[in-house]
Amino acid sequence: MNNIWTIQANGRAVIAFCNAHDRPYEVDEDIDEAEAYVEDAGLQEDLTVLCDLDGKSLWDGESSLAVRRANAEEASRWKRAYDAALANNHIEYGDGFRTYLIAVIDPTEADGNEA
C-alpha cells in the first residue's frame, strides 16, 4: 500500500510526504487528507522561500500545487529519508514526514546552506 504522496510545483516533483500518524507504512491516507496538507500555510511558505540550486523559488505562490501518489522512486527516496530521520532521532515513529525530492537552499540561512 502506497500512502506516500508527491507535491508538484511548477510542473516538477518537489516533495514526497506522508501525514499518516500511528503506522506510516500501513495506514492508507485518502486524497482529501493529502490535498489538505498541500493547503498548509507553513508548507506553502517553505515552497516560496526555499530555492533550487539555481536560485529559483520552488513555487511562485500563485500557480496550482498538484498532489498525487508518489511513484516507486519517490516513495523509495521518502522511505530512506524517513528511516534515516528515525535512526538519528530527528522524528518519532508515526510522525508525519516530508522530504525534498530536489536539492534546496534556504536563502534565509546566513551561509545559504542546503536545507
Overview of the structural elements:
The protein is an alpha+beta fold and 115 residues long. The chain has one domain (5-105). The chain is 29% helix and 22% strand. It contains 3 helices and 6 strands; from the N terminus they run ββααββαββ. The strands form 2 sheets. Strands 4-1-2-5 form a 4-stranded antiparallel beta sheet. β1 (5-9) and β2 (12-18) form a beta hairpin. The radius of gyration is 14 Å and the shape is globular. The N and C termini lie far apart (29 Å).
Main pleated sheet: 4 strands, antiparallel
Whole-number tally of structural domains: 1
Computed structural class? alpha+beta
Give average pLDDT, whole number.
86
Uncertain stretches: none
β-sheet strand percentage: 15-25%
Q: Tell me the distance between the termini.
A: 29 Å
C-alpha-based Rg, rounded = 14 Å
Order of helices and strands: EEHHEEHEE
Question: Percent range for helical residues?
Answer: 25-40%
What characteristics describe this protein?
115 residues, alpha+beta, 3 helices, single chain, two-stranded antiparallel ribbon, 4-stranded antiparallel beta sheet, globular
Brief synopsis:
The chain has 115 residues and is α+β, with helices and mostly antiparallel strands.
List the helices and strands and how they pair.
Elements: E1 5-9, E2 12-18, H1 31-38, H2 41-49, E3 51-52, E4 65-69, H3 72-87, E5 97-100, E6 104-105
Antiparallel strand pairs: 1-2, 1-4, 2-5, 3-6
